[in-house]
Write a structure and sequence with these properties.
The complex is a heterodimer of chains A (311) and B (298). By secondary structure, chain A is an all-alpha fold. Chain A is 73% helix and 3% strand. In chain A, 52% of the residues are buried. Chain B has a two-stranded antiparallel ribbon with strand order 1-2. Chain B is globular and about 60 Å long. Classes of the chains: A mainly alpha (311), B mainly alpha (298).
């Protein structure tokens, strides 16, 4: 796992660097904020991947979080970003806690299939719900923070800063989580579940807790993306969205809690350019990169750093 | 009464369509343990190829009935060209790795194929609607159905019967059961396992393409048509039991009837119902309704 205790320091430096550089590059703030929203979701997936589980349904929580935030703003006029994010986290936590009861005993492709089915259920419901805009979704009210607007040209930096802080907090929290006994169970479960049981730990409970954490992260990520983009639709729960998260997770690798954010940033960056210059070969590039990573770099892009550091 | 009849007929027609697609998926999983996401893209590839072949046939002024032959030929060609290409060129290097890794590999393949289709055919819709109306319509009670829909039902039954015969009634089918049961032992006994894998994947690809080819006349063939189909096919095979042939038929019937019941009575629940049942089956019987405890039943 992590071979040094420098990770928290590096994360802090990265946070400061991004916060300082952010205002100088206003046109990048949007992209970075969206990347952080997805990065948070992928961070949850990293937790599952380290436990040996691949979820093809993280879109469920991503979408759920976004809709929780959207509905609060739409029907009750609540626009405070902190409250919206909290609501998104809570909604995802409750749903993940309930669904986790089922999913905790599934592994491998059955875990992937059941999580996919569950996210498609939400998609099926949202697509047909007139009140929430069916397939078109709806626009979010511009978010505020402590009464100040944090969207539009003026406030955009505030939302960006909030996203950076969230990413920092989540990455740090997960970093320390992996050092707790429960966190250390992750690789153990991946490697040999039966042994973990014999050692007296409950694999089921551990997986359940990890699933809830992953769900909460995805919920916050979805709400953040929704607030940044200003629009949400059921596509967020579609299997292709979940597939995208899996792609970013494989791309970035599970080597570090910072990897998902780097991976999501690279992904959004490439996508922005690919949409402009070659919209019809974008998926071709994605698929090829994914195959190359699976074959030649199973630990993801992050492992390049570690090789380089060791050399 | 006629409402119920319509529900049943719609359901069975939809189920036949689903079966043709899902049976290839279940075949590949049953033999090779690969849950093939790329199946959706192969379906789309079949549809596009069929649109080209059929369009060419009709534009040459050959007898229109022959366009059905062109559709089937398209599926066969896609199967024979693309199937071995993927199996020999990519999948064989992945055997023995985790099922979930193979799932990711086929997902990558899915993304690649989606764009390959766009590169070959462009993004504008392809139309090959003539075969759909060619056979006329039948009246059942006060309902009118295109005969083509019943052709689809016949084809799916034919596919089911042929596959069952090939797997249970022929020497190769029985040997395949041995390969499924224990790959290493069968290799040691002199069975050319590689060839069985190659043949299985080719046939599976052909079936995906056949599903697409037969769908092409009923829709406009557009990019991304495989995205939707693959999750439906997943639902079907998961409900019936991954890797089970009768399971795929049962799953297709359940999904088909469920969907047509939802469409007739509560349209709002159309998609919800399908995935709800999929989740339900996974929860109650994770291995599917038709799962065999010892040997996979294909």
């Amino acid at each position: 796992m992590m071979d040094s205790n420098r990770t928290p320091l590096l994360l802090l430096l990265a946070l400061l660097a991004v916060l300082v550089v952010g205002p100088l590059l206003p046109q990048w703030q949007f992209l970075l904020t969206v990347a952080i929203g997805k990065g948070l979701t992928v961070l949850g997936l990293l937790l599952l991947l380290r436990t040996g589980l691949v979820s093809f349904g993280q879109g469920l929580y991503y979408c759920l979080g976004a809709y929780a935030a959207g509905v609060l703003g739409h029907y009750w006029g609540i626009t405070d970003a902190a409250i919206l994010l909290l609501a998104a986290a809570l909604t995802s936590a409750v749903v993940a806690a309930v669904l986790g009861l089922l999913l905790a005993s599934y592994r491998s492709i059955f875990f992937a299939m059941l999580s996919l089915a569950l996210s498609m259920i939400l998609y099926g419901l949202l697509v047909k719900s007139q009140a929430l805009g069916s397939t078109d979704g709806f626009n979010l009210a511009p978010p505020t923070l402590l009464g100040y607007p944090i969207s539009g040209y003026e406030g955009r930096y505030a939302l960006f800063g909030l996203a950076c802080l969230l990413a920092f907090a989540a990455a740090l929290a997960l970093y320390y989580y992996f050092r707790t006994p429960l966190g250390r169970l992750s690789p153990a479960i991946r490697d040999n579940e039966i042994r973990v049981e014999y050692l007296g730990a409950s694999v089921r409970n551990a997986v359940h807790i990890k699933y809830v954490i992953a769900g909460v992260l995805a919920g916050i990520g979805g709400a953040l993306t929704g607030m940044t983009v200003g629009h949400i639709d059921p596509e967020m729960a579609y299997w292709t969205t979940s597939g995208e998260f899996v792609f970013v997770a494989i791309l970035s690798g599970t080597g570090s809690v910072a990897a998902p954010f780097l991976g999501a940033f690279i992904f959004e960056l490439i996508r922005t350019f690919a949409y402009e210059y070659s919209p019809n070969t974008w998926q071709l590039a994605l698929g090829s990169v994914m195959l190359l990573i699976i074959v030649f770099l199973p630990a993801g892009l992050w492992s390049l750093f570690r090789r380089w550091r060791r050399a | 009464m006629s409402a119920l009849l319509a529900l049943l007929i719609d359901g069975v027609i939809y189920a036949s369509w689903l079966f043709i697609i899902a049976v290839g998926l279940t075949l590949i999983y049953g033999v090779m343990n690969i849950l093939n996401i790329a199946h959706g893209a192969l379906y789309a590839l079949g549809a596009y190829t069929a649109a080209s072949f059929g369009g060419y046939w009709l534009s040459q002024g050959y007898p229109p009935l022959g366009s059905y032959g062109a559709l089937v030929l398209a599926a066969v060609v896609v199967g024979l060209v693309v199937g071995p290409l993927i199996e020999r060129g990519l999948l064989r290097f992945m055997y023995g790795r985790d099922e979930i890794v193979l799932l990711l590999v086929t997902y990558a393949l899915f993304l690649i194929l989606e764009d390959v289709i766009k590169l070959i055919w462009g993004v504008s819709p392809q139309l090959i609607s003539q075969p759909y109306g060619l056979l006329g319509t039948v009246e059942l009670g006060n309902l009118i159905y295109p005969v083509y829909s019943f052709v689809l039902v016949a084809v799916s039954i034919l596919v089911g019967v042929l596959l069952t015969w090939a797997l249970r009634g022929t020497r190769h089918g029985k040997l395949l059961a041995v390969v499924i049961h224990d790959r290493e032992i069968s290799q040691a006994m002199g069975i050319a396992v590689r060839r069985y894998y190659l043949a299985t994947f080719t046939v599976g690809t052909m079936l995906a393409a056949l599903g697409g080819a037969l769908t092409a006349p009923t829709v406009s063939v557009v990019p991304g048509m495989g995205v939707e189909v693959i999750v439906l096919a997943f639902a079907v095979v998961v409900i019936g039991g991954l890797g089970s042939l009768p399971g795929a038929a049962l799953g297709a019937l359940i999904v088909g009837l469920l969907r047509s019941a939802a469409v007739h009575y509560v349209p709002a629940l159309e998609l919800f119902a399908i995935y709800f049942v999929m989740a339900l089956v996974l929860i109650v019987r994770p291995k599917g309704l038709f799962a065999d405890e010892q040997v996979r039943s294909i």
